[in-house]
Amino acid sequence: MGHRTLDFLFSPVDPPKPSAERKNPLAKDSTFDSDAVTALQDEFGEHIADVTLYANEHTVYVDRESIVDLCTFLKDRFGYVYLSDLGGIDRFTEEQRFEVLYSLIAMERGKRIRLKVRLDEEDPVVPSIYGVYPAAGWNERECWDMFGIRFDGHPDLRRMFMPEDFEHFPLRKEFPSLGIPGSLPLPSQTDDGEIVKDPFPAAHGSKPLRRTPFPE
Amino acid sequence: MEARTDHNEVFSFWPKHNERLFARLESKHLHVEPSTDPLEAEMSLNLGPQHPATHGVLRCALKLDGENIKTCVVDIGYLHRGIEKLAENKTYQEFMPYTDRMDYLAPYSNNVAFCLAVEKLAGIEVPLRAQYIRTLMSELSRISSHLLWMGTMVMDSGALSVFLWTFKHREVLYSIFDEVAGARFTVSHSRIGGVAGDLSQRAVDLIEDFLPKFSEELDEWMPFLNRNRIWVDRIQGVGVITKEEALAIGMTGPNLRASGVKFDIRRFEPYLVYDRLEFDIPTREDGDSLARYLVRQEEMKQSVRIARQCLDALATLEGPIRVDNAKQGYASKDEVYYSMEGMIHDFVMTDTGVCPPKGAEVYHAIEAPKGELGFFLISDGTGSPWRVRINSPMN
After folding, report:
1. pLDDT attached to residue B136
2. Residue B12 domain-assigned (yes or no)
């Protein structure tokens, strides 16, 4: 009797196979919008690299040149008036390293769709969709702050959380979790006005400085 | 007044940052225009980052014309903790307690939101009783969050007693959370695949006791506030946001519903057991502060209604509170303490936890008290997420 091939549904190494995907108990049927995906494929055929489906959620991979047109199309034709989320993804070691994620909602029709734009590491620039969805303003700033992805045509692309003087992009995979010593200039920490440039000295192996001297 | 540099020009604090901030404000630095009449003078001021009026760490660079604010540039990030970065170095279950700290007014909702997203990613089905417990506690945390909002808002406009009334009830809610989860504030009660523990009889009694009392007292407050001319005059017509504006700027939650958009994730894509429950989505058309206040007030009543139905359902519903599959959730403590396999499963869950398929990505959102709280997760096939994108209602 030969060994039957064990069919692990969720093994750590295999990519998900559409046929092997069992019915996801939390997948929503109502927000699944295949009409819009079909219409997008008809309209922007060569600009759509791929369409994936997992847990009843479509992800449409779009060329960066046509993202603004595609958002306008979805907004005008399918009622996607609301931008729910926009964020960056670092696919470190992959061919096209960065991804920008757009999550849209059609309020009246009760549908969701997710768009993604893939970018090369050398040229992480994507057109801003601020003109279509003003809600993207802060999200694009956050994405620039955290990943260094620039948004062409954004009216005010300042960093969102980190100061402008900070030179690194924290959510990139190569950025260490403990931070980089000296990357954030801070006010003086000693009584004679000496500037200490390490915000987390204990994390990097040294004891924190005592601000007040021991009593005599 | 000259632009001030810190530390006698020895050290300028984040010079590029301030330069861009004031460039955005179309002002070079903080200044007051010399003029005889201070109400006519133009000035640029700095508010915060630490200021008693900001309720948190928020810095605003303001351009004033007399008493009117002409431009305001907001500088946030003083509370940025890099929680998305932290998540990449934790297992799924390890990261769950961190979600408490994202919105400490409704920690239970955050736990539930994250666990639901992981369950969707890995295809885990949660037992019905656990879903009811999650729904019940999420609604209680919604009441808690809205109560704090109401108390502080009325207090800021001058009525201190409402703040004390609301905090009386929040104290009871904290006792309930303490009894259910073992912690008053950062509950961390949800587990991937269920919840940590069942409701004790005392917890049920506390909730049974709380709901009618709170409902009654809420009805008593309303005439005080809704017919109070000082209160209504201060918030009516203030900060009007139209429906179109609200959609364009991506407002969410009660604020969006106060602008006339009937959008609530509990009805838009029902999660947990919301499709089995009866409740209404209150909306107002005005879009001003009064509408936002009334929507939240009505939402608290609806939350009581939902909690009531959950309690009734839980009274007759027997069953497990965690998924009975050692690859998907923690084994029950009975198994862990009394069997070798249970012990091993517990170790494996703590060490590695659930491993969703490689390349899988999902987005799952819930209606947190402040609006849509969504988690976008990407799995790389290991026990830790490759990327956790948090779509928080606060920004």
Report:
1. 94
2. yes
In a domain, A16, yes or no: no
Give dist(CA B163, CA B151) in Å, integer: 4
Shared-domain flag, residues A128 and A198? no
User: How many CA atoms does the CB half-sphere of B136 hold within 13 Å?
Assistant: 30
Residue A169 within any structural domain of the chain: no
For chain A positions 102-121, those within 8 Å of chain B (CB to CB) are 103, 105, 107, 110, 112, 114
Give the residue from B362, B379, B395 with the most A CB atoms within 10 Å of its CB, the best one to mutate: B362
In a domain, B24, yes or no: yes
Q: Classify residue B263: in a domain, yes or no.
A: yes
| Under 8 Å between Cβ of A8 and B357 | no
Last residue in a domain, options B293, B316, B339: B316
Averaged confidence pLDDT in chain B: 87
The share of chain B scoring above pLDDT 70, in percent, equals 95
In angstroms, rounded to a whole number, what is the distance separating the alpha carbons of residues B99 and B110? Answer: 6
- The ipTM estimated for the assembled molecules is 0.86
Q: Alpha carbon A175 to chain centroid distance?
A: 16
- Residue B128 forms contact with A (CB below 8 Å): no
- Give the structural domain span for A199: 176-216
Question: Residue B196 sits in a domain of what CATH number?
Answer: 1.10.645.10
At residue B148 the predicted structure's pLDDT band, cuts being 50, 70 and 90, is very high
pLDDT tens per residue across span B345-357: 999 999 888 888 8
CATH of the domain at A94: 3.30.460.80
Contact list, B124 vs chain A (CB under 8 Å): 25
> How would you classify residue B381: left for phi > 0, otherwise alpha for psi between -120 and 50, otherwise beta?
left
Burial of A23 (0-12, 13-18, 19+ CB in 10 A): exposed
Between chains, do B249 and A134 touch, taking CB under 8 Å as contact?
Answer: yes
Nearest CA in chain B to A15: B358
Determine contact, residues A56/A24, Cβ cutoff 8 Å.
yes
Query: B217 lies in which domain range?
Result: 106-112+125-316
- Total domains in chain A come to 2
Single pTM value for the model: 0.88
Per-residue pLDDT tens digits for B75-108: 888 888 889 999 999 999 999 999 998 888 889 9
pLDDT, greater one: B377 or A216: B377
Evaluate whether residue A72 is within a structural domain: yes
Q: At what angle do helices B160-181 and B201-226 cross, to 10 degrees?
A: 160
Mutate one of B268, B283, B327, B375 to test the A interface: name it (highest A CB count within 10 A).
B268
The reply to whether B327 touches chain A by the CB within 8 Å rule is yes
Q: Kindly tell me if the per-residue pLDDT of A7 is higher than 70.
A: no
**Total of domains in chain B:** 2
pLDDT in tens, B193-230: 899 989 999 999 999 999 999 999 999 988 888 888 88
B340 located within any domain: no
| Contact with chain A for residue B10, Cβ under 8 A | yes
